[in-house]
Amino acid sequence: MKILIQKFGGTSVATKERRAMVVQKVKSAKEQGFSPVVVVSAMGRKGDSYATDTLLSLINSDFKNSNLKAADMLLSCGEIISSVVMANDLYDNGIESCPLTGGQAGIITDNNFNDAEVLNVDTKNIISILKEGVVPVVTGFQGLTEDGYFTTLGRGASDFSASLLGVALKAEEIQIYTDVDGIMTADPRLVEEAYIIDKITYNEVFQFADQGAKVIHPRAVEMAMKGNIPLVIKNTMTDAKGTLIDNYGTGSSKKLFTGLTYMNNRIQVRFKSDDNRNNDNYYNILDILAENNISIDLINIFPNEQIFTIDEICIAKLKEIVEALNLNCTYSDRCTKVALIGNGIKGVPGVMAKIIKVLKNNNIEVLQTSDSHTTIWCLVHSSDAKKALNIIHDTFMVN
Ligand code: ADP
Ligand code: MG
What we know:
Layout: E1 2-8, H1 16-31, E2 34-40, H2 52-56, H3 61-66, H4 68-92, E3 97-100, E4 107-109, E5 118-121, H5 124-131, E6 135-139, E7 142-145, E8 150-152, H6 158-168, E9 173-178, E10 199-201, H7 202-210, H8 218-227, E11 231-235, E12 243-246, E13 259-272, H9 285-291, E14 296-301, E15 305-311, H10 315-324, E16 330-341, H11 351-361, E17 366-371, E18 375-381, H12 382-396
């Protein structure tokens, strides 16, 4: 049996017309001799009747936060509705199919409601359905605790469900269908010149997704990589080849960077030793933040100051700590972290200097930088982010 995972995102299953395209993709997989396993997200986006955010708005946030188990039961409904509706459309087109909840598909999780960890995937049920020539239509984003309660796996985790099943079923390929022709060199909403990347490594896409590109969930990439199953990002509405993600990527490409992405809502925090004389907490700031679960990045430590960035949502907590410990610091809010990603930068000298120069020549202030083997980060004012992305794209990514 050649198993193929086909995951369809919220916009792909939102309307009858779009679901007709989904049916075509499933039909064509069957004609090519594959046994498809379909994974679906909830239908549509916020505002659409059965979208996850719409369901979430039915309960108030106090209730949600103190009853995560109940909230997960509600959140699971979006995918359940979607899987039955999709199964109906397949049936209408002569494809026998069977909607399955995460639990019925064998996805067993711990009791960490809202962000559950998967403990085990028991493929027995799916395999027996496939052996009968029936297409399982599995709800993404959800699992079941060992004692039978619905759990969800974290925002955007339907991609992860697809990879999880792909690895457990040793699929030939995991196809993630969405509303763009593949992974692009930059977010097409901000960079008009962005173009499709044909091939890219797991590692690069992981960086891409982890650094803000919404096109695929980072855990989905990590899981597919563990199982060494090729991932392909495709458009539900077109026949474009899509982006192939595996261990090889473009191999011999001469390009320095594969793509760029960004993360908004960053706040730069700066502690100066002169402002914190005789306060020993100054030397333990990073530990104290870690103990308080405040995640920081772009960390630059100098003899006389410590600089890093945090997400806007952590600012209240940080201010509380700073006050309680009598520390002094300054904040620059409304920053955007731009990330340039590519295996090609390893060991190439002068790249950072070139980026800073081109931004400076265009009057863009670079607030901070950092780099790793595969990524270069620049912090800029959010008001400059779109311009910075376009200039960097023009400089390094011309096709
Ligand atoms: P789905 O509902 O199908 O899961 P998502 O909204 O999660 O779809 O992901 C697709 C969207 O990701 C695209 O519509 C696009 O706007 C956005 N996106 C951001 N960065 C990129 C990129 N580098 N390449 C392609 N799409 C991107
Ligand atoms: Mg998505």
